[in-house]
């Protein structure tokens, strides 16, 4: 998720041993003070810093305060965190965001002088949110793609009906009222993160046609095997099922025509459905 600058914030450093304000030329500017990003996406938190001549920064890292006291700890993100340095610009990159990553983040610098460590205030407030569809109204339903916080950047929302894309708009609300059809299910996503769908909801009741994938993202080695699984709940009994790729399927009158991967020459001899009951690929 790319960050949008909402106004650079010029701040001063706080010495961990001695507070020195208005002296020298220490300072840090965060590119944004607040970011709201999607669960599962990637975010970049960045800042630029300056220091007086004669000093040298020996180490730099980002951290968050997990407790309410003054004990600062370096948060363990288990391989999801990388740094990018470019002159006096320091960027924190967090992948596969989780809602537990929501926190206030600061950057800390250690100079080659005995005075102490420096912390850039006020930091960046990161909020991580998922998507969900809110259904309101009576016979004519209104659908709204909801988040816990306003997503950072220019956001385009994509709507799906029974798994097929039907619309995209800058509005969080689906453009048309929806009839209370027992069969139909809806979900939403954000453009650029189409693989991060909201959970599918029924417009009426809980027995609409819904497919839930066990995992939305899978990373595997070239040449290895992979199991992709899902569960299905439907208004009608299923008589057959297949897996397909939109890139390998055709269209007719703007409608996707699924083509079974088992009949695709590119997948010949490499695809099987070992457990038809659970719709595994």
Overall description:
The protein is 0% helix and 40% strand. It has three domains: 9-129, Immunoglobulin-like; 132-223, Immunoglobulin-like; 240-281, no CATH class. The radius of gyration is 25 Å and the shape is elongated. It starts with 8 loop residues before the first strand and ends in a 24-residue tail after the last strand. The model is unreliable at 1-23, 67-73 and 277-281 (pLDDT under 50). The chain has 281 residues and is mainly β. The chain has strands spanning 9-11, 13-15, 27-30, 34-38, 43-50, 57-64, 81-86, 89-94, 103-111, 118-129, 132-137, 140-146, 157-161, 164-169, 178-179, 185-190, 201-202, 210-213, 230-233, 250-252, 255-257. The protein is built from no helices and 21 strands.
Number of strands: 21
Number of domains: 3
Q: Span from first to last CA?
A: 30 Å
Instruction: Give the SSE string.
Output: EEEEEEEEEEEEEEEEEEEEE
Major sheet details: 5 strands, antiparallel
Please identify the structural class as seen in this structure. mainly beta
Number of continuous helical runs: 0
The CATH architecture name of the largest domain reads Sandwich
What characteristic shape results from the CA principal axes?
A: elongated
What Rg is obtained from the alpha carbons, in whole angstroms? Answer: 25 Å
In CATH's first tier, which class of the largest domain applies? Mainly Beta
In the CATH hierarchy, what is the superfamily of the largest domain?
Answer: Immunoglobulins
The mean pLDDT is: 77
Protein name: Ig-like domain-containing protein
Signal peptide: 1-22
Keywords: Signal
Organism: Esox lucius (Northern pike)
């Amino acid at each position: 998720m790319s960050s949008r600058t909402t106004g650079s914030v010029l701040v001063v450093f706080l010495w961990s041993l001695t507070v020195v304000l208005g002296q020298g030329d220490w300072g840090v500017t965060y590119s944004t003070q607040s970011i709201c990003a999607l669960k599962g996406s990637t975010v970049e938190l960045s800042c630029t810093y300056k220091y007086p001549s004669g000093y040298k920064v020996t180490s730099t890292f980002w951290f968050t305060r997990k407790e309410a006291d003054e004990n600062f700890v370096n948060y363990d993100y288990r391989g999801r965190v990388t740094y990018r340095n470019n002159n006096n610009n320091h960027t924190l990159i967090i992948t596969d965001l989780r809602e537990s990553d929501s926190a206030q983040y600061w950057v800390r610098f250690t100079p080659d002088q005995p005075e102490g460590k420096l912390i850039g205030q006020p930091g960046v407030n990161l909020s991580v949110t998922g998507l969900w569809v809110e259904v309101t109204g009576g016979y004519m339903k209104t659908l709204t793609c909801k988040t816990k916080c306003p997503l950072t950047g220019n956001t385009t929302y994509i709507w799906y009906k029974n798994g097929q894309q039907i619309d995209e708009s800058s509005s969080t609300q689906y453009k048309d009222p929806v009839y209370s059809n027992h069969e139909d299910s809806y979900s939403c996503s954000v453009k650029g993160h189409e693989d991060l769908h909201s959970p599918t909801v029924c417009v009426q009741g809980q027995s609409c046609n819904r497919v839930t994938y066990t995992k939305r993202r899978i990373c595997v080695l070239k040449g290895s095997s992979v199991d992709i699984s899902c569960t299905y709940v439907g208004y009608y009994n299923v008589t057959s099922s297949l897996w397909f790729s939109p890139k390998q399927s055709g269209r007719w009158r703007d409608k996707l025509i699924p083509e079974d991967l088992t009949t695709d020459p590119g997948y010949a001899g490499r695809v099987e459905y070992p457990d038809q009951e659970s719709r595994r690929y």
